[in-house]
Amino acid sequence: MNDLHGKSIVLGLTGGIACFKAAELCRSLVKAGAKVQVVMTEAAAQFITPVTMQALSGQPVYTSQWDAREGNNMAHINLSREADAIVIAPASADFMAKLIHGKADELLSLMCLARPIQMVPLILAPAMNREMWAHPATQRNVAQLKADGTHVLDVGQGDQACGETGDGRMLEADEIVEELLAFWTPKVLTGRHLLITAGPTYEAIDPVRGITNLSSGKMGFAIARAARHAGAQVTLVAGPVSLPTPRGVSRIDVKSAMQMNDAVQLTAPHADVFIAAAAVADWRPATSADQKIKKDGSGDTPELQFVENPDILALVAKSPRGQNGELFCVGFAAESHDLLAHATAKRARKGVPLLVGNIGPSTFGQDDNALLLVDAHGAKELPRDTKTKLAHDLIKDIASRLSKF
Ligand code: C5P
Asked: Is the overall model pTM greater than 0.85, yes or no?
């Protein structure tokens, strides 16, 4: 699942200062392709106007169960039947307390109660003061909502409008969109731990210079994100890149191949799948100077000696768990030509069940790519598309191989 095209979302707003973030959320949902129908409580309309939400959603906003625009005067039925989900953001403490009792004295709670519970999921993004959030009554209500099948998202932590600091902030718009994308992704990797490397490595020559490979890390990060959407626990070992950590992914930052190898060897014993998408430097300078090597004006150049870096993927693939299939290893090959031949040879050399080939120069730093999946039986193409889409397809492919394992 890469976007929200075709999704019909009822966005409910209840009273709280986080309503200002609901405007951005509405915009992001529409941008992601969703049809958004806004429903607001009276309290929400104290914080943000229905006019703003109408302009952003492109749909008239509903605020009352007595809205005469509906032919049958049953907005609560009509709106909830058309929705793929009802998302309440912000969900106030008071509104959650109402929900657990099945109260239905205004349109939004009435609609939540009237929705076909098996077909229309209810997703809440709570927002409130930290004391209200921590209160046993709120925590009891959250537990009851979850027991009733409601999806209650986490709260954020930090500064609050009241001047206090703590838990209870509503998640940011992009975080809620991310949670929705994950919500609609089939959970083909639940219970699996994926270890993924991404980005280049940097091999220091001295404190200010080094050698590295061309890699933005975008493909590996997209795979980590897709794996998390698919329900996996994900550890991402990242070389030096300036990419944000995908939500819900635990990230270990490293610089050199040796550091990447240490992080991988530490985590691999607990992983079910290892995807080596990093562009690891093949060699590192034999020595790294403590101080900057100075140009002395003589015209002499420094003599650089190199030593080979450990082949992280081959080492993991050769480990007992890699060999007996407890750890499914996937390699990457960035080639400039003859992709099938090189990828096939590399798969054999690395001793991995699956090797993913791509043409490096036509994808480095870009948002799209094309992949060639090579296994013992042959090759399959994933044609040019966004890295996000390809990552989801690759994850689906890997998950289907695991179930046959
Ligand atoms: O040998 P080559 O670098 O072309 O192979 C690419 C694959 O091997 C990628 O999956 C890459 O992450 C992995 N690799 C590695 N350790 C190295 C070199 C490459 O894990 N030292």
From this structure: yes
